[in-house]
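quick one
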Amino acid sequence: MEGPLWAPWRMQYIEAGSEPRACIFCEPSEPLSDAQRLVLHRSEHVFVLLNRFPYSPGHLMVAPYAHVGLVEELDTETQRDLMARISDSARLLRAQYDCEGLNIGANIGRAGGAGFEAHVHFHLVPRWSGDHNFMTVVGEIRVIPKHLEKIYEELLERFQELA
Ligand SMILES: [Zn+2]
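structure w/ zinc ion:
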């Protein structure tokens, strides 16, 4: 992959990959553990989870508990918490994977490329110079759950620093 990553059509493709019927950012009706949901950290208003369909290894998402589609619908406390956890996540990703860059952003609304337009969430995608070479690896991660579990364990340990 050359050039800028933040192509909404690409993210739409990634998000469409999970084809959920229920909102994946809301608590499921049948309780699942944080490990099952790949949740790495919970703060008062927001939580951090690993993307099950990563664009690159360590692809995280930060979402509020509140089921709202627009950032401006979040109260000030939640907006602050969101930015603080995005900042923590960026720092921990850098520490764990030594990534040289990050893409941080949100797709808002269907026209903005959102796969889950009803529940706002931010993506953090680690980047490395020449990381188009990672894309094959990412393909493997998608089909080999063990890799995703390994990344989850590694990052979970990192996120304990915040506890
Ligand atoms: Zn939701």
